Amino acid sequence: MMSWDNLIKDLKHPYYLMRITAAQLLCNLSKSYSVDRILHDYRYLFELAMDINKEVARACIQSMWKIAVKGRQHEELLTEASMLIRIEKNKKYRKKYKEILANRCQSPKLTSY
Fold first, then answer.
1. CB 3.0 to 4.6 Å from 75: which of 16, 34, 63, 68, for a disulfide?
2. For the whole model, what pTM was predicted?
3. CA–CA dist 100, 46 (Å, integer)
4. CB neighbours of 63 closer than 8 A, spacing ≥ 6?
5. Closest C-alpha among 9, 80, 1, 76 to residue 36
6. In b/e form, how buried is each residue of 36-53, taking b as 16+ CB within 10 angstroms?
7. Is 19 buried (19+), middle (13-18) or exposed (0-12) by CB count in 10 A?
């Protein structure tokens, strides 16, 4: 049986199909998981959405809409993330993106359940 932590670990797996599967499972689980763990672990999905392998990035982005279904806070998180992904794809804004993501990950709003 796959646990949440194993799926997070599989997002860094060298084999691209394992990364895709882990991302899709996490997005599906985030809809029904009673504790909002995705608010704490979302950054791993967004890193995967910028993967060098375009197939991995596309599959991750296509599954991430399921996170927004859970509530308003999740929807805002996904909206902000999609903006940051667009910024990341533009190399000129890469440094600014890293700062925004670091500040967002330290936000107490995200770590409180």
1. 68
2. 0.69
3. 13
4. 23, 24, 27, 28
5. 76
6. bbbbebbebbbebbbbee
7. buried
| DSSP states along 33-70 | -SS-THHHHHHHHHHHTT-SSHHHHHHHHHHTHHHHTT
Instruction: Note the pLDDT tens digit of each residue in 46-84.
Output: 888 888 888 888 888 888 888 878 778 777 777 777 766
How many whole angstroms from its chain centre is CA 89? 15
The least confident of 27-41, 53-67, 97-111 is 97-111
Q: How long is the chain?
A: 113
Residue 99: DSSP 8-state: H
Which amino acid belongs to residue 49? A
